[in-house]
Each structure stands twice: as structure tokens, then as C-alpha cells.
């Protein structure tokens, strides 16, 4: 397939301040000539967990339409690709506020210069929600993960949380359990497709203000995400639903460490607001 010249793909690593960390994302800043099949083909060729496509743009109003594709399918929202696109745009039109129309709803992002050659982006999610996972959902996921119920932290119950997409949240009892991830790819894919989960958000609580996370993403054709902004937003809603945040709390999430791609996500959760703010840097990946 031949793609229009405007389909040139930029590559950024999100939620890191150096290319060797974070989650790589493809960014196409002018995707208006592309149809869905072409965007999917571009994403498959890039091979990252997501590539984001700017399908319409109004630079004067700083408003854009974004679509997100994994190598296998379109997804409604992707946090790390949104951060990557925001930094790419800020580098070209200047830092400031951005507004995105996505399949998940309107997403607002603040971008600021944060030192020489570095831009920080903060996205505000759509309203989050979280519900207790059903026993059958948990059992099926644990079987595919090759985990047992004793591997879970009873103080952090399993939930299905939403922050633009739905994610199953499972809390590991120990850091060692989180580090030892060897799941059945096909089995977990099947479970996630049945329930409509975008990732399984595996977490371990180091302290009240710091968590470690891993996100299997087999439904996107990717074993694991090094940083997952949408899941971080959903996790903020999970903590809010459980009453584990105060009027306004800031939580640090460390992800990708066990993959050799350390990523840092900061979430701001308000007990009175269902929206969650997710902050991180993004940097170009040298070609």
C-alpha cells in the first residue's frame, strides 16, 4: 500500500525524559488524507502499541481531532500517544493549552516548557468510574496470568476502571509477584476481548503516594506497555472510588522498569472530581 506523503510518522517516547525510557508512540500530525484502513496499516508498520493520527486541526483555536490505532485495531483513547502528540505539537506551535476531540470525548492538555529541549504535558481525562470486578472476571484473568488469589493484595480489591477505556485493575501482594510476569498471551487476549478491557492494569503499592504498574496489552498485539496513561487515569478513578485519596492527592506511578524502559507518570486525583490529571514528558526518538 502506498501512503500519502503527509503520513510521515514522528516517533516519540512518552512518560520519560530520555528516549531509552517511556513508551514509544508514532505521531502523524497531518492524517487528514488517510482513511481507517490506511491508518491501521501505518500503525501496524510502525509496530508501537499505539500510533496517534491528527485527522483535523485548527491551530488558531489549538483544537485538533485525534484517532488512535494499535497494530491490530483502533482504540478510543490512548494516554501516552496523547502526551506524545501534545509535545510534538508544542514543539511546532509553541507550548500552551490544547483541546482534542477523541472517540472517548473531549481531552484537554496543558503543555509547558520544562527545561532546555523538554516539554511537559498534563492531560485531563474524561470522567472516570470504577466498579468491583465480578468473581468470574477475576478468576479468568488470574488463570490467564498464571497467578493465584494468594498473589493479590486484599487491601486493594479487583475493579474494572474506566478512564477513556476500561481496564481490569489487579493489585499484587508483593513487588516480586509484579516483577514475575509470564502470562498466556492467547488466553488473556480472549478474556480481555470478552469483557472489553484495553489493558490489565497490574499494580503494587510501595506507599500511599507511590505505585508500580505493569500493563499487558495483548488485544493490541503487544505483550506489555511500558507506560499507559489511560490506565493511569482509570487507576486514579479507582483510588477515588475506594476512598483512598484526600480532597486532592498526587500519586506517582512507576512503570516499565521490569521491561528496561522506566517510565514515570504523575496523576492528580480529587475526591470531588471524577476527572484525573495525568502528567509526563515526551522526547523524540532519534531516527
Key phrases:
isomerase activity, 40% strand, Diaminopimelate Epimerase, Chain A, domain 1, eight-stranded mixed barrel, PhzF family phenazine biosynthesis protein, Phenazine_PhzF-like, 23% helix, alpha+beta, isomerase
Commentary on this structure:
This protein has 287 residues and is an alpha+beta fold. The chain folds into 2 domains: 5-124, Diaminopimelate Epimerase, Chain A, domain 1, CATH 3.10.310; 129-280, Roll (Diaminopimelate Epimerase, Chain A, domain 1). It has 6 helices and 17 strands. It has helices at 36-46, 79-93, 135-145, 175-179, 185-195, 229-241; strands at 10-14, 23-28, 51-58, 63-69, 74-75, 96-102, 105-113, 119-124, 129-132, 159-162, 166-171, 197-207, 210-217, 222-225, 248-255, 263-270, 273-284. Strands 1-2-3-4-6-7-8-17 form an 8-stranded mixed β-barrel. Strand 12 and strand 13 form a beta hairpin. Helix 2 (79-93) crosses helix 6 and helix 3 (135-145) runs antiparallel to helix 5 (185-195). It is globular, with a radius of gyration of 18 Å. The two termini are 22 Å apart. The relative contact order is 0.17. The mean pLDDT is 96.
Give me the secondary-structure topology.
Blueprint: E1 10-14, E2 23-28, H1 36-46, E3 51-58, E4 63-69, E5 74-75, H2 79-93, E6 96-102, E7 105-113, E8 119-124, E9 129-132, H3 135-145, E10 159-162, E11 166-171, H4 175-179, H5 185-195, E12 197-207, E13 210-217, E14 222-225, H6 229-241, E15 248-255, E16 263-270, E17 273-284
Parallel strand pairs: 2-3, 4-6, 11-12, 13-15
Antiparallel strand pairs: 1-2, 1-17, 3-4, 4-5, 6-7, 7-8, 8-17, 9-10, 10-11, 12-13, 13-14, 15-16, 16-17
